[in-house]
Design goal:
This protein is an alpha/beta fold and 469 residues long. It has a domain at 55-368: Alpha-Beta Barrel (TIM Barrel), CATH 3.20.20.140. Helices cover 30% and strands 22% of the residues. The chain contains twelve helices and 18 strands. Strands 1, 2, 3, 4, 5, 15, 16, 17 and 18 form a nine-stranded mixed sheet that branches. Strands 6, 7, 8, 9, 10, 11, 12, 13 and 14 form a nine-stranded parallel sheet that branches. Strand 10, helix 4 and strand 11 form a beta-alpha-beta unit. Helix 7 runs parallel beside helix 8. The longest helix is centred in the middle third of the chain and has 18 residues, at 216-233. The structure holds dihydropyrimidine-2,4(1H,3H)-dione (DUC) and zinc ion (2 copies). One zinc ion (ZN) binds at residues 60, 62, 317, 319. Keywords: Hydrolase, Metal-binding. GO terms for molecular function: dihydropyrimidinase activity; metal ion binding. Residues 3-38 form the Urease alpha-subunit N-terminal domain.
């Protein structure tokens, strides 16, 4: 019997802190050896000239999430995780949405049924708490955190999701006691409603005005308030999908006060701007997401946030809707106002190539920062054991990258369920040529070689120690 099932030979390994040449020996789905001249294997994969990186962990994706009457997300678990694997990822964390009045366990049962045997890569779920009732706060949530559902998202905007400050405080208090990590979507609901009403009355109803209804101050104010509420309860939080300097500076200042505030940004805030929608008419709907893409100065700020560690998480916020579809961006109401356009854009497959190309290849961030921002920090922040690094004892979740391969992003080459990419035409240098999940190839030489029964659901540990009762 060979010592290893697989050896990846002569590649350059990068972790969040180191870059070095070595062979990786894999047995029973785990990395069991890292060394020189490992050869005794059933299969030897030559990775000379290639980078051997941890598979990407995308801790912010939306898959098969109920999105309102008549609206259907463009991806189910099979297509989203297939696209993720082509993009060099081995783990995703989508959101299980609680409907108003719905017990969390019921929402989870339905969501597990959608994912079960339908995932090409590993996954676990965040909860979205839309209705923090007494039983949710007092019983369901603490029990679910103990069962490994250790993170949840709450919203400060959207009619059917926005929580009051009182409700946010209640959720944060339960998180503190149970050791769960709360993600906050920070935009001021009333301010958006006020601005949207004004824009509509003035006849400014096209997709371009979506961004005008959610200017930076709306995000900055909510970010500041979210941080203040977390400070009051003394609990860590994550501010997700930060789009600009002002919101980022709120996080920076909170950190300087000693608070644990994690920051996340996404590809759309690095490479898109509001001008991309300007002359497109209804096609601007392809770029409608919240917070909206801003301007060049905001892009620069987001790069600084990544470089300086204000943002420790780089996620896709993949939230796919088809464009040319009445169940997607062109829902009949969308023509009457931007207000009705489903919020979100696809990006699960393009997240890593965009950050690699714009970040590593262009010298804005190091390869080690890339690994930290796209894999290691996600595992550490969300309590995921044995994932997110190339190290002995870790799962053999590995992406092999050709740092010199060039490509032009195009819908025709992507594997998601959407009918467009907002990144059409973006030139990329650096591409994941193979993705391996727990020692088995899922994608190799541009082909899907894995099966949708490969991916496993994993429960997670507590992101931080809960406070004493
Ligand atoms: N928030 C997200 O995280 N994703 C899409 C839409 C939204 O508002
Ligand atoms: Zn959000
Ligand atoms: Zn999201």
């Amino acid at each position: 019997m060979a010592a290893f099932d697989t050896v990846i030979r002569r590649g350059t390994i990068a972790t969040a802190s180191e870059t070095y040449k070595a062979d990786v020996g894999i047995r029973d789905g785990r990395i069991v050896s890292i060394g020189e001249a490992l050869t005794d294997a059933d299969e030897v994969v030559d990775a000379a000239g290639m980078l051997v990186l941890p598979g990407g962990i995308d801790s912010h994706v939306h898959i098969s999430q109920p999105s309102g009457p008549g609206i259907v997300m463009a991806d189910d678990f099979a297509s989203a995780t297939r696209a993720a694997a082509f993009g060099g990822n081995t783990f995703v964390m989508p959101y299980c949405l609680q409907a108003k009045g719905q017990p969390l366990r019921e929402a989870l049962k339905d969501y597990h049924a959608l994912a079960d045997q339908n995932c090409h890569i590993d996954h676990s779920f965040h909860l979205i708490i839309a209705d923090p009732t007494e039983s949710v706060l007092g019983q369901e949530l603490p029990a679910l955190v103990a069962d490994g559902y250790t993170s949840l998202k709450i919203f400060m905007t959207y009619a059917d999701l926005a929580l009051s400050d009182f409700q946010i405080l209640e959720v944060l208090a339960v998180a503190r006691e149970s050791g769960a990590l709360v993600q906050i979507h920070a935009e001021n609901y009333d301010a958006i409603r006020f601005l949207a009403d004004r824009l509509e009355r003035a006849g400014n109803t096209g997709p371009y005005f979506h961004g005008k209804s959610r200017p930076i101050v709306v995000e900055r104010e909510a970010t500041s308030r979210a941080i203040s509420l977390a400070e009051l309860i003394d609990v860590p939080i994550v501010i997700v999908h930060v789009s600009n300097r002002e919101a980022m500076d709120e996080i920076r200042r909170a950190r300087m006060r000693g608070l644990t505030i994690h920051g996340e940004t996404c590809p759309q805030y690095l490479v898109l701007t509001e001008d991309d929608l300007k002359d497109l008419g209804m096609e601007g709907a392809k770029y409608v997401c919240s917070p909206p893409p801003r301007d060049k100065a905001s892009q620069q700020a987001c790069w600084e946030g990544l470089q300086q560690g204000i943002f420790s998480l780089f996620s896709s916020d993949h939230c796919p809707f088809r464009y040319d579809d009445e169940a997607g961006k062109l829902t009949p109401n969308a023509r009457s106002s931007f207000r009705w356009i489903p919020n979100g854009i696809p990006g699960i497959e393009t997240r890593l190539p965009i950050l690699f190309s714009e970040g590593v290849s262009k010298g804005r961030i190091s390869l080690n920062q890339f690994v930290a921002l796209t894999a290691t920090n996600h595992a550490k922040t969300y309590g995921l054991a044995r994932k997110g690094s190339i190290a002995v004892g870790y799962d053999a979740d590995i992406a092999i990258w050709d740092p010199g391969r060039t490509a032009t992003l195009s819908q025709k080459d992507l594997h998601h369920g959407a009918d467009y990419t907002p990144y059409e035409g973006l030139e990329i240098t650096g591409w994941p040529i193979a993705t391996m999940l727990r020692g088995r190839f899922v994608v190799r030489e541009g082909k899907l070689v894995g099966d949708k029964s490969y991916g496993r659901y994993l429960s997670r540990g507590k992101p931080f120690k809960p406070s004493a009762p």
